[in-house]
Write a structure and sequence with these properties.
The chain is an alpha+beta fold. It has two domains: 73 residues, no CATH class; 190 residues, 3-Layer(aba) Sandwich (Protein Transport Mog1p, Chain A). The protein contains five helices and 14 strands. The strands form three sheets. The protein has a seven-stranded antiparallel β-sheet with strand order 7-8-9-13-12-11-10, with helices on one face. A four-stranded antiparallel β-sheet has the order 4-5-6-14. The chain has a three-stranded antiparallel β-sheet with strand order 2-1-3, with helices on one face. Strand 1 and strand 2 form a beta hairpin. The longest helix has 29 residues.
């Protein structure tokens, strides 16, 4: 009888990225040894071909499962940037941010419109607020970066007014407080690492529960609901094809000291300088 051809599954392991790949080796039934001419392989040799092939087929689902775990683990490790000490580096959008030690920074899993969120550690609290842990607005900085071909002026107009021109505007709305029910009270230009920047000042009304000052001396106590404001800024600037939006927000009565800290943090924003190309 003519010899029947068989296929032997060979598992290749690459150590650099932890990838596991599969390759089929064609061999003849008459041979007892499968010889491979390449390295870094697990080899099945000196085995009965029929038994080996059957076992390998049974192991395929297990190896595929292990492969998916490797890939999932690698994907979960990818973040929007790296933090060393108090320096945040976003390699994808080419900038570093040195922030104050009184603030903590949180990165996001890729892909993400939000690149980082900073919150103040030791923030001020309105002592008249009842159940302060539920009522306090913590000073927060949100950094967003995206790629677009439209100009800074077109982007600003689309973000604030023209809802149709910016296709993913709803993503911004969900992430930025000052795009809904907020009042713009000032607009001016500033510089972020020598890049022209639109700085928009907003305030947004909200209600909070505070102790009733008329009953502070009473043993019964009491609380009332009052109108308050979150205030802050939207900074819009563009570097190359990358558009950046930075939102800063805090409670109205603490804008003074928090504004100074926000300004100091934005002074720590530096775009990475690439060496000129040599022809």
């Amino acid at each position: 009888m003519p010899s029947m051809n068989k296929w032997l599954l060979v598992i290749q392991k690459r150590s650099l990225k932890g990838e596991v790949r599969f390759r089929l080796l064609h061999f003849c039934q008459n041979k007892n040894v499968a010889k491979l001419s390449f390295n870094n392989y697990f080899m099945l040799t000196n085995v009965n071909q029929e038994v080996a092939v059957k076992k390998i087929y049974l192991l395929i689902p297990i190896f595929l499962f292990i492969l998916s775990i490797f890939q999932l683990s690698f994907a979960q490790k990818k973040r929007t940037g790296e933090v060393e000490g108090n320096v945040f580096t976003d390699k994808r959008f080419g900038y570093n941010l040195t922030f104050l030690s009184n603030w903590k920074l949180k990165t996001e899993k890729e892909p993400s419109l939000i690149r980082a969120t900073l919150t103040k550690k030791n923030y001020e609290v309105d002592r008249t607020t009842r159940f302060a842990s539920y009522e306090v607005t913590i000073p927060t900085i949100i950094i967003i970066a995206d790629t677009t071909q439209i100009t800074l002026e077109e982007f600003s107009e689309a973000l604030l007014k023209d809802k149709k021109k910016l296709k993913n505007r709803q993503e911004y709305v969900l992430k930025l407080d000052f795009l809904t029910d907020a009042e713009k009270i000032e607009e001016k230009e500033v510089l972020v690492d020598s890049v022209r920047t639109k700085m928009l000042t907003f305030r947004k009304k909200y209600l909070k529960t505070v102790e009733d000052p008329r009953k502070l001396s009473s043993s019964e106590g009491g609380n009332v609901i009052v109108e308050e404001f979150i205030v802050g800024y939207l900074l819009l600037f563009k570097k190359g094809a990358n558009m950046f939006v930075v939102q800063f927000s805090c409670e109205r009565q603490f804008i003074g000291p928090n504004h100074r800290e926000f300004t100091a943090i934005m002074e720590g924003w530096k775009f990475k300088k690439y060496p000129p190309k040599v022809n």
